[in-house]
C-alpha cells in the first residue's frame, strides 16, 4: 500500500474509499497531539512569523514593518495574536487554513528554499482548538488590500467565512475565546513569561499588550555583534533565560564543520553552569532547542551529557527534525552529532573557565564538586582537568586528592562504609584524613586517581585495607603470653590479635567483625518482619557459615611502648602488670564508647597520656614485689578493672 497504490490483486470495483471522521480526527489532533495547552500560543506566533516571511518573499520592496502583538482580555477570556504579515485571501483560507495537513508554508519553502519559514505539516493551527471554544481569524491579504475576511469555527470541524472590514496595511488577527479551564492564559504577565522563552530567538519583535519593549529584546550573543565585552553579553543572556538558577559562567556552542556522520553540526548557542548546589547525581540539566528561531523542545536534557547535571543552555540548529507535535526531536544522526558537539562544548567551556577565570572556577568546584567527581570518571579530558582540583569529601572536610595523598603519607585513604569504625578512628588518631567512600563517585574517582598517579590507595573496611593497618608482629608471642593477654584484655566474643600498627601511642584497638554483625542482625527474630522471606532464607544460608563466635578482633599494638613495658613487667613477674593490663582494658572500653558516639576531643593527646601513665605505673613498682595492691588509688573508678588481678598476678609467678 506504499505511495497510496491499491494492491494489484484486488479488482478495481472492489476497492472502497477510507472514510475520515474529521470531527474525531480534529479532536484527537487538537487534544492529544500536544503535551501542554501553551503549545497553541507557540503555533500561532509561529504562523504569524511565517506570514511575515511570506510577505517579505512576495513583496521584498514593500514598506512592510514586521511586528507581532499578543493581547489578553481577562474579562472576556480571550487571547488575540496580531500580525502585519501576508494575510490570506478567501480561497487561501479554504485551501490552507481550513485544510488539515496542507499549508502554504511548506510549498513556499520548497519553492523558494527559504530557511526562515518554520511551518511544515499544516497542522499547527488546529492546536488553537485545544485551548479555545471558538477561533476567529480576521485577515486581509497584502495582495488584496481592500478585502477583509472573517473565518470562524467552533471545534475546527465546521467553519464559516464572511466578509469583514479590511485590516489597514494587511495582516491577520487570530482571536481565541478560551475554554473555561484555560482561562488563566488570558493574563498578560503569564504571556510575557511564556513568550519570553518561546520567542527569545525570533528575529521579529513580539510585544505583549501595549508594551513598548518586545519580549524578545535581549540581544542574542551568537547572532549579532553585541557591543562591549562578549562574555558580559553571554552572561546577560544566560541570566535572562535561565529562570531557575543564576549562571556562574557561560560559554559558547560553535558549529563543527562537516556532515553529521563525521561529527559535523550546524548548531550554535550558549551553555552555562548553573548556580545552586547539586548533590550527588541530581539532574538539573536544562536545554532548550530552537529551530529557525522557534522553541522546539523545551527540555531536551538528553542532548547534554548525563554527567552535566549542572549545565543549562540554549541551542539552535536547522538540521534537526522535529516530531509532528514539534515538541521533540527525531533521534537521527544530526541529533547524535549535536550530542557529541555539546559534550565537547561543556568540556572546552570548563577548561576555558579554569584557565581564564580562576575565581569562577573555584566557585564551580565548591558548588558542583560531587557532580564533577562523577563527570571526571565519564570523560578522560575532564579527569585530566579535575584530578588535582576537584574537592573530595573527607573526614577533615573537602580536600583535593593531592592534599589527601600528602596528608596520608603518599597514600590516599578511603572508608568503604558509612564511617565511624575503629579502623577510621585509628587514622583519625594519626591525623590522616579519610575520604568518604560512601559518597557518590568518591571511591571510583580515587581508585582511578591512585592508578594514574601511581600512588597507594588504602580502602578501610576491606580485608586488604585492614592488613595494611595491622601488620604482623616481628616475632610471634609465646602462646602462654598470648593467653595471659587475652584473659586480661579481651571480653567474651573478642579475639586477641597481636600486631603492629600506627600510631605507636595507641596500645590496642577493637574492630568489630562485620559478618558477625550481619549474622546477629539476620538471626534476630525481628528480621522476619523486616526482610522478605526468600531473601531472609538466602541470607541465613550465607550467615550459617559464619560461626558468629568471634564478634570482634582486639588488635594489640606490639609497637606501642606501653604494651612493650607491660610485657616486660609481666615477664619479670611484676605484680603491677595486672593493674596496667586493667588500665589498657579500660582504655578499650572508653574508646568503644567514644567511637560509637563519634570521636571527640584530642584523641592523640589522650592516648599518649594513658600510655605514659601505664609506663609510669609499671616503672614505679620494683620488679618482684608481690605486695603491691591490685587496685591502687586513683584506678578504682576505671571501668573493667574488676576481676583482672587474677591472670596477671598468677601469671607473674609462673
Ligand atoms: N497568521 C497567519 N497569516 C497567514 N497565513 C496563515 C496564518 N496562520 C496560518 N496561515 C496559513 O495556514 C496554513 C496552515 O497553518 P498551520 O499552522 O495549520 O500549518 P503550518 O504552519 O503550515 O505547518 P505546521 O503544522 O508545521 O505549523 C499555513 O501554511 C498558512 O498558509
From TrEMBL:
Keywords: ATP-binding, Chaperone, Nucleotide-binding. The lineage of its organism: Bacteria, Bacillati, Actinomycetota, Actinomycetes, Kitasatosporales. It comes from the Bacteria. The keyword DNA-binding does not apply. One of its GO terms (molecular function) is ATP binding. It holds the Pfam family HSP90. InterPro entries: HATPase_C_sf, Hsp90_fam, Hsp90_N, Ribosomal_Su5_D2-typ_SF. Belongs to the heat shock protein 90 family. Gene3D superfamilies: 3.30.230.80, Histidine kinase-like ATPase, C-terminal domain. This is ATP-binding protein.
Amino acid at each position: 500500500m506504499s505511495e497510496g497504490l491499491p494492491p494489484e490483486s484486488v479488482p478495481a470495483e472492489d476497492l472502497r474509499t477510507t472514510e475520515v471522521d474529521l470531527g474525531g480526527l480534529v479532536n484527537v489532533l487538537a487534544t492529544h497531539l500536544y503535551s501542554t495547552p501553551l503549545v497553541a500560543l507557540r503555533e500561532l506566533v509561529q504562523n504569524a512569523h511565517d506570514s511575515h516571511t511570506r510577505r517579505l518573499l512576495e513583496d521584498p520592496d514593500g514598506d512592510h514593518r514586521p511586528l507581532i502583538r499578543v493581547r489578553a482580555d481577562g474579562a472576556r477570556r480571550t487571547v488575540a495574536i496580531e500580525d502585519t504579515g501576508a494575510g490570506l485571501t478567501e480561497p487561501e483560507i479554504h485551501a490552507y487554513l481550513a485544510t488539515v495537513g496542507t499549508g502554504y508554508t511548506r510549498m513556499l519553502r520548497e519553492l523558494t528554499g527559504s530557511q526562515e519559514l518554520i511551518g511544515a505539516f499544516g497542522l499547527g493551527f488546529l492546536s488553537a482548538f485545544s485551548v479555545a471554544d471558538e477561533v476567529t481569524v480576521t485577515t486581509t491579504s497584502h495582495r488584496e488590500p481592500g478585502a477583509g475576511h472573517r473565518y470562524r469555527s467552533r471545534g475546527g470541524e465546521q467553519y464559516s467565512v464572511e466578509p469583514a472590514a479590511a485590516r489597514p496595511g494587511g495582516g491577520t488577527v487570530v482571536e481565541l475565546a478560551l475554554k473555561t479551564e484555560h482561562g488563566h492564559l488570558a493574563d498578560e504577565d503569564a504571556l510575557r513569561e511564556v513568550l519570553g522563552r518561546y520567542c527569545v530567538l525570533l528575529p521579529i519583535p513580539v510585544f505583549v499588550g501595549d508594551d513598548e519593549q518586545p519580549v524578545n529584546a535581549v540581544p542574542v550573543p551568537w547572532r549579532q555583534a553585541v557591543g562591549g565585552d562578549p562574555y558580559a553579553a553571554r552572561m546577560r543572556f544566560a541570566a535572562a533565560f535561565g529562570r531557575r538558577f543564576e549562571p556562574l559562567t557561560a560559554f559558547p556552542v560553535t558549529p563543527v564543520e562537516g556532515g553529521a556522520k563525521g561529527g559535523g553540526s550546524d548548531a550554535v548557542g550558549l551553555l552555562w553552569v548553573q548556580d545552586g548546589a547539586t548533590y550527588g547525581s541530581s539532574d538539573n540539566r536544562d536545554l532548550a532547542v530552537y529551530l529557525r528561531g522557534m522553541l522546539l523542545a523545551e527540555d531536551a536534557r538528553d542532548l547534554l551529557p548525563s554527567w552535566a547535571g549542572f549545565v543549562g543552555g540554549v541551542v539552535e540548529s536547522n538540521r534537526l527534525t522535529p516530531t509532528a507535535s514539534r515538541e521533540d526531536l527525531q533521534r537521527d544522526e544530526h541529533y547524535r552529532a549535536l550530542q557529541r558537539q555539546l559534550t565537547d562544548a561543556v568540556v572546552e567551556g570548563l577548561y576555558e573557565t579554569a584557565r581564564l577565570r580562576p575565581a569562577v572556577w573555584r566557585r564551580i568546584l565548591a558548588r558542583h564538586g560531587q557532580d564533577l567527581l562523577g563527570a571526571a570518571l565519564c570523560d578522560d579530558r575532564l579527569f585530566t582537568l579535575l584530578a588535582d582540583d576537584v574537592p573530595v569529601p573527607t573526614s577533615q572536610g573537602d580536600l583535593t586528592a593531592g592534599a589527601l595523598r600528602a596528608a596520608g603519607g603518599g597514600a590516599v585513604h578511603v572508608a568503604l562504609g558509612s564511617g565511624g569504625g575503629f579502623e577510621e578512628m585509628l587514622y583519625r588518631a594519626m591525623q590522616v584524613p579519610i575520604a568518604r567512600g560512601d559518597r557518590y563517585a568518591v571511591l571510583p574517582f580515587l581508585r582511578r586517581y591512585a592508578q594514574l598517579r601511581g600512588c597507594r590507595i588504602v580502602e578501610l573496611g576491606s580485608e586488604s585495607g585492614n592488613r595494611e593497618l595491622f601488620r604482623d608482629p616481628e616475632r610471634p608471642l609465646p602462646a602462654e603470653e598470648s593467653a595471659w593477654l587475652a584473659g586480661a584484655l579481651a571480653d567474651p566474643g573478642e579475639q586477641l590479635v597481636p600486631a603492629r600498627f600506627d600510631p605507636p601511642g595507641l596500645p590496642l584497638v577493637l574492630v568489630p567483625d562485620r559478618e558477625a554483625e550481619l549474622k546477629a542482625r539476620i538471626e534476630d527474630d525481628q528480621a522476619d518482619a523486616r526482610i522478605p522471606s526468600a531473601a531472609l532464607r538466602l541470607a541465613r544460608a550465607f550467615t550459617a557459615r559464619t560461626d558468629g563466635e568471634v564478634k570482634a578482633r582486639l588488635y594489640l599494638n606490639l609497637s606501642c611502648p606501653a604494651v612493650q613495658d607491660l610485657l616486660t613487667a609481666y615477664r619479670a613477674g611484676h605484680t603491677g602488670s595486672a593493674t596496667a593490663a586493667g588500665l589498657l582494658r579500660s582504655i578499650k572500653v572508653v574508646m568503644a564508647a567514644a567511637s560509637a558516639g563519634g570521636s571527640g576531643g584530642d584523641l592523640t593527646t589522650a592516648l599518649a597520656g594513658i600510655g605514659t601513665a601505664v609506663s609510669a605505673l609499671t616503672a614505679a613498682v620494683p620488679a618482684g614485689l608481690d605486695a603491691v595492691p591490685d587496685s591502687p588509688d586513683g584506678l578504682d573508678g576505671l571501668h573493667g578493672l574488676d576481676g583482672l588481678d587474677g591472670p596477671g598476678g598468677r601469671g607473674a609467678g609462673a
